[in-house]
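Please fill in the sequence for the structure shown.

STRUCTURE ENCODING:
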């Protein structure tokens, strides 16, 4: 029983930093940790990092479309 309880600490892989995190938000079926969420908001749009974030987000928001 003790082991079952230990596994209750649910973490999910963040789509941005790809680390298992517990705190964060869900965007569609994906998970963004609160650290990355904060980072995205604070990053200047001119920062190359911002482009990376957006690219990662696009993967989540846009379903794969084959035309
Ligand atoms: Zn993250």
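FILLED IN BY: designer on duty
SEQUENCE:
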């Amino acid at each position: 029983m003790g082991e079952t309880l230990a596994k209750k600490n649910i973490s999910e892989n963040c789509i941005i930093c790809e680390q298992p995190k517990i705190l964060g938000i869900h965007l569609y079926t994906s998970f963004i940790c609160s650290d990355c969420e904060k980072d995205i908001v604070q990053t200047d749009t001119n920062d190359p990092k911002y482009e990376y974030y957006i690219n990662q987000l696009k993967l989540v928001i846009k379903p794969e479309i084959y035309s």
